[in-house]
Amino acid sequence: MRQSPWSASPVQECHRRPRGRPVKQGPKSRSSDMTESGLGDILVGGRYYFNEEGKYPDIEGVASIKLPTADKDKGLGTGKSDAGIRMEASKHFHKIMFWEAGLGFTWMGDPAGIDYQNRWTITLESAVTLGKIDP
Q1: Is the pTM for the entire model greater than 0.70?
Q2: pLDDT level of residue 100 (50, 70, 90 thresholds)
Q3: Which of 34, 37, 75, 104 would bridge with 121, disulfide CB 3.0–4.6 Å?
């Protein structure tokens, strides 16, 4: 049972560009024998639980913002923020099967020289629990 209908979490990503791949995007793209690595963008998000799973599915609203902390000169990020929202519904069946469906929209950052399009996303997921690990 949840204590609060709100939840928030930061996610930090590290990126590494392998040899021979473009290290920059857009009109200045080039291949390089260099490997670039470093701090990635940080995704900060929150979620609101509209109802807790019971007879009906768990319904959640999610919002997130990508903070442009990756080095765009190394090709690890775009240097721009993105923002997104989505709704998710999830349900467990027979204590071993889980499904989730989601619909979301992302507003993409607009770096110079690159025309990223805002995008809709639809997700469907299912899983089966094969066993339980007791701590």
Answers
A1: no
A2: very high
A3: 104
| pLDDT of 34 | 66
Separation of alpha carbons 6 and 60, rounded Å: 10
pLDDT of 20 over the 50 cut: no
Q: Which amino acid is at 20?
A: G
17 contacts 75 by C-beta, under 8 angstroms: yes
How many Å apart are CA 113 and CA 43, to the nearest integer?
Answer: 24
Q: What is the dihedral of CA 25, 30, 35, 36, to 10 degrees?
A: -30
CA quadruple 14, 17, 22, 28: dihedral, nearest 10: 40
Q: Which two tokens stand for residue 82?
A: 């993105």
b/e string for 3-32 if b means 16 or more Cβ within 10 A?
A: eeeeeeeeeeeebebeeeeebbeeeeeeee
Q: Determine the average pLDDT of the residues in 93-118.
A: 89
- pLDDT, mean over the chain: 79
CA distance 8 to 62: 9
First to last CA, the chain: 20
